[in-house]
Amino acid sequence: MNRPYYQQVDIANTQKLRDMISELPPFAATFFRGIEQTTSSRTRIAYAYDLKVFFHYLCTEVDGFKGRACADIELAELENITPIQLEMYMEYLKYYVNDNEETDHINKERGISRKISCLKTFYNYFYKKGLLTNNPASLVSLPKIHEKDIIRLDIDEVAKLLDVVEDGGTLTARQQAFHEKTKVRDLAMLTLLLGTGIRVSECVGLDITDVDFRNGGIKVHRKGGKEVVVYFGDEVEEALQDYLMERKQIVAESGHENALFLSLQNKRIGVRAVENLVKKYASQVTSVKHITPHKLRSTYGTSLYRETGDIYLVADVLGHSDVNTTKKHYAAQEDERRRSARNKVQLREKR
Prior knowledge:
Elements: H1 5-21, H2 28-34, H3 41-61, H4 83-93, E1 95-98, E2 103-106, H5 109-128, H6 155-167, H7 173-196, H8 200-204, E3 211-212, E4 217-221, E5 227-231, H9 234-247, H10 271-282, H11 293-308, H12 311-318, H13 323-329, H14 331-340
Antiparallel strand pairs: 1-2, 3-4, 4-5
Helix pairs in contact: 1-3, 3-5, 6-7, 7-9, 7-11, 11-12, 12-13
């Protein structure tokens, strides 16, 4: 059955989550059923991964659990874990080795904060349901997050990036060989990302029928399953029209007939492939900025806010459920606007 891309992703995520839950203690399944209606499948997979790390830590590092199988841990035993032990777990998260994979892992502030937040949610669920009488995770403070400068392309860098995609002159000989086959697609894709601010997952999920040239919009499925129309300008329309003329000549593989953007294998292009091509082209423009599809999204948000000054419009177009998220990302621009407004109101005529 040729299901929409977002449904295919949900099915794949559901299957992956079931496999991951089977590696956790049996009571974990209750938690995941409980949060199913309020979280996305991707969020639940992230929770499952973080809980797997926690229970691995218990079974390898903590007295009373050390040497036991993860599946043998009972819910009531979690009450015996102290806040001090959870703080020791935070220290462990900075650097640890997974014995099964023989790989090491490093977590900085954000990674540690995410894993402890997951643990707090996990404990809180069972505590609220009355299945635990003690909630040690509530007594643990999250690490302080130091905000990083948001990386984005400047206006001239955006123009240079699209020029590189269009002519490929600075690419290596090997890259140019592939570039001749994909430049129309790549230009359409990057112009779309830079001209609408959609997420890379929304971009690769587009079907041909999602593009509406009459109204100048594309239909995308946001995180959480919400379906919205995002509007595009003339530059995006021109790039998409050029690509669709080429796309009509391509016979897609079975199951990928509706996909808008295809790989060289004539299958729906994946997120990783888009990340790689953005990295390839951006490296020709700047060597000091690590540019990803998400940075192109930030670039669009910055440009839109600079032109409109409407933070609520930016939040709506980018699909942020909380405008405070948008404000946090574009605080520097807000401060710049406030400074520029300091002489706008004149109290007396200048002499």
